[in-house]
Structure formats: C-alpha cells, structure tokens
From TrEMBL:
<protein>
    <submittedName>
        <fullName>GlxA family transcriptional regulator</fullName>
    </submittedName>
</protein>
<dbReference type="InterPro" id="IPR002818">
    <property type="entry name" value="DJ-1/PfpI"/>
</dbReference>
<dbReference type="GO" id="GO:0003700">
    <property type="term" value="F:DNA-binding transcription factor activity"/>
</dbReference>
<dbReference type="InterPro" id="IPR052158">
    <property type="entry name" value="INH-QAR"/>
</dbReference>
<keyword id="KW-0804">Transcription</keyword>
<dbReference type="GO" id="GO:0043565">
    <property type="term" value="F:sequence-specific DNA binding"/>
</dbReference>
<dbReference type="InterPro" id="IPR029062">
    <property type="entry name" value="Class_I_gatase-like"/>
</dbReference>
<dbReference type="Pfam" id="PF01965">
    <property type="entry name" value="DJ-1_PfpI"/>
</dbReference>
<dbReference type="Pfam" id="PF12833">
    <property type="entry name" value="HTH_18"/>
</dbReference>
<dbReference type="InterPro" id="IPR018060">
    <property type="entry name" value="HTH_AraC"/>
</dbReference>
<feature type="domain" description="HTH araC/xylS-type">
    <location>
        <begin position="218"/>
        <end position="316"/>
    </location>
</feature>
<dbReference type="InterPro" id="IPR009057">
    <property type="entry name" value="Homeodomain-like_sf"/>
</dbReference>
<keyword id="KW-0805">Transcription regulation</keyword>
Amino acid sequence: MTHRVAVLALDGVLPLDLGIPARVFNEARAPDGSRLYSVGTCSLGGRPVRTHEDFRIVVEHDESLLDTADTVVIATQEPTPDLLATGTLPEDVTAVLKGIRPGTRIVSLCTSAFLLAAAGLLDGMRATTHWTLCEAFTQLFPGIEVDPNVLFVDNGRILTSAGGAAGIDLCLHLVRLDHGASVAAAAARRCVAAPWREGGQAQFIEHVVPQDADRSTSDTRQWALERLADPLTLEDMARHAHMSVRTFTRRFRQETGLSPLKWLAQRRLAHARHLLESTTLPVARIATACGFGDPVALRRQFHTYVGLSPAAYRRAHSAPGVAEGTAAVR
C-alpha cells in the first residue's frame, strides 16, 4: 500500500522547508515507476497559512488529514515569541499534535522540534533543532537531550532534524528505512541531492578556525579512515597530528564539531553500514574490519544508534545482487 504522508503547515512556516517532504517522497518509486508515498498538505481548519515570507499559501486539507496518515511531518515554523518565552503552544495546536494517532510516525523539520517539545511529545528523548536555538531549547525543555552537532535524530516513532537541507537528509533516511538504500539513492538522484549524509554529521556551525590553519587535523582524519580496523586511541591520533592530546582534541572539535573518539565511532558505524548494504560478508568479519572487535560490540552500536540489529539492517537496506567480497575491507 502507498504510504500516506501528511504535512502540517502552521502560521510562520518556511516555504522552502514546506516543500521538502513532497519533493523527496514523491521521487521514491517502485520498480514499475509508481509512487511509494502519497503526500498531502494541511492546515488548521484548512485555512490559508501565513508564511515566514511576504505571502500566504492555500492548502487542500484541514487537520483531519492527520487522522489517516502513516507519517506526519511538521513543516518548519519559526518559534513565536510566546513559545520562546513560555514553552507553551496555543490550545488548538497542542490539541492537534496530541491527537495524532498512536503509532503514527512524527517528523519535525528544523525549529518545529519546539512544537513537539511544547506538546510533550519529546519528553525524555534525544532531539535536535537548528544549532542557533539549541541553547534556548535546552533552557525551555530541560527534560529533553538536545544534540546541536547532528543533522537528524531518529527515536523510532519520532524524528527531528536540524535546519534547512537537513530536512532532505531526514526524508531520505525515512525512504531508506521504508524501502532500502537503492530506492533512496534513486530518489536522491532525482532531487539532485546527496544520497546519504550521516545523521551524526555535524551541522554547519560557525566554529572558530584555528589561526595556524596549517596544523589542521584533516590529515589525521584521513589517516584514521584508512585504519578503521586498528584499535586507534586518542593518543595515537594526537601523536600522528604532532600535537598534545589537549590541543588535538580542541582543534578536532573546532573543525568537526565532534570529539575525536565520537567522530571515529561514527566513521566506523558508517563503514559497517556500507559493508552490510553492499556485501554479504559475515557480521563477525564486518565487526573486525570496522574496528569493533567482535559482533557483540557491533550489535550494541547498531541497536543504540540505528535501532536495528546488523542482520535486520542488512535485510532492509542491502542492494540487490551484492556478492561476497565486492567491497574493500581494511
């Protein structure tokens, strides 16, 4: 059956972000060329919506569209002064969000994470939003773990994304989850977008650039990528960069937005995903090739950050026709 996506547009919506779900999901096609998703846009009462720019938009549906949706996307709405001051929403918005059927997947784009948080839908979860408002988000909703250094966060039923193009990344991530890597890659090509940017990739935050830029950590990052199977330590990486551990860690975070070991763990996980998708190598061999040491550690990482076991991930995302040994293993 076609997966039904309902996009909710509220006053203050960003027009560019409003169009992202339809643009991405409508490009996800079955082998016969038929669309795998149907996308509709709604507003409260079906009324015209005042955008963040100097025009209004007219939608085809009211909020009853949410009642039959498999996925609900809350298009980016810039937080109102009242929401930023009190952490609360108008009663009608709260009622609509809390009235979404149990089991329906809920997605927020960019600063619409504030809406989900104010409605109580993110309590006790991890989330992200645009990096410029992460501090305000934390102050308003201390019970939610905010990560400013990622493009999106997948909690299973509820997902949040960072600003702008990260909404494209999240929608493509959902296509991958639903229909596999090849369908998502084809949709990305039709959108002329990158088929996959890791959810853990740092947002483009204005990090301070080290004054002696010739002492970048980029060479060490490349060196580490070529040795993912080795038991690399922070000291090993700092030694290769000819820096103290303290200086290396500071510069690494300035350049990537992540600590060296967190970055290394994410690269290992990304390599494991690639091998699961593109080869039939045993999970134990993939664990060794990616530096996890044993399958138990690899499974633990997958359950924590992907929400699936390696075997389940392979069933969902492996490309057709892969053969053992088709990808290089370091």
